[in-house]
Write the structure tokens for this entry.
Amino acid sequence: MGRLTGKTALITGGTTGIGLATAKLFLKEGARVAIVGQDAARVAGAAEELGAGAIALNADVSCAADMAAVAVRLKAEFGKLDVVFANAGIARPMPFSDVDDDNIDHQIDVNFKGVIHTIQSTLPLMNKPSSIVLTSTAMIEKGVAGMSVYAATKAAVRSLARTLSAEFAPRGVRVNVISPGLVETPIYGKLGLPAAAVQEWAAQLMSGVPAARFGQADEVAKAVLFLASDDSSYMMGENLLFDGGMATV
Ligand SMILES: NC(=O)c1ccc[n+]([C@@H]2O[C@H](COP(=O)([O-])OP(=O)(O)OC[C@H]3O[C@@H](n4cnc5c(N)ncnc54)[C@H](OP(=O)(O)O)[C@@H]3O)[C@@H](O)[C@H]2O)c1
């Protein structure tokens, strides 16, 4: 029997990287899974990769109406939800002096408001007990130049887990955070920077990672499974650093 047998899960940002690896693991562990992504082609690609056991939905987490529609679909398909992995996120690195409203608004809209829309729309579907997992970053613990707005949006996400754990405890809904370090995913191709600049930046960051390698999405997925499943039943409002020692060692 799988660790999520009979359970249902929503994963936002489930079309690539950490979310897709987690969707695969959740399916393997017996869950029925729905994923959300905003790029139609990547949603279709993920649907094909995951197969018939998963529902793939095209929605923008920064749009409350989109997420309300996702919740309507999930109610019809699953009835109730046992796990919500609010993982969709973007990073737009920029020197602080260049940061403008577009940079701030876009990252807040997806990384912070997106998490709020995801949880608000699905909360009425959450079982008692159930688990919400949020994706933050090790960069909330270790300052990294160029990541001022990104890290702040993710610190807000980490804060939400504390407040919402207090607020949702009577409903039996736990809220915890996974904070990855440098993980090899397509996010590095979506930063809006030239490939050479990304490589140089990644090499510089890697020099501060005791594990001396990138983490892999399927490694992060195993930690998410822990937070999503009953294995972490006594954990609430916690932040699990998963960063090869980047922020701590
Ligand atoms: N990789 C790392 O080193 C690292 C480290 C720390 C934290 N994280 C965090 O981990 C999470 C997953 O990132 P990843 O590394 O796996 O990168 P990724 O492969 O780029 O995955 C990001 C996912 O979020 C989705 N997404 C982005 N904007 C969205 C929106 N407005 N609405 C719906 N979905 C949206 C993407 O879908 P589309 O492709 O359709 O846009 C994709 O499925 C993010 O929150 C990221 O900040 C990553």
Summary: Helices lie at 17-28, 40-50, 64-78, 101-122, 148-168, 195-206, 217-228. The domain at 8-241 is CATH 3.40.50.720 (Rossmann fold). The two ends are 37 Å apart (CA to CA). The pocket of NAP is lined by residues 12-19, 36-39, 42, 60-62, 87-91, 110, 114, 135, 137, 180, 182-183, 185-187, 190 (CB under 6 Å).
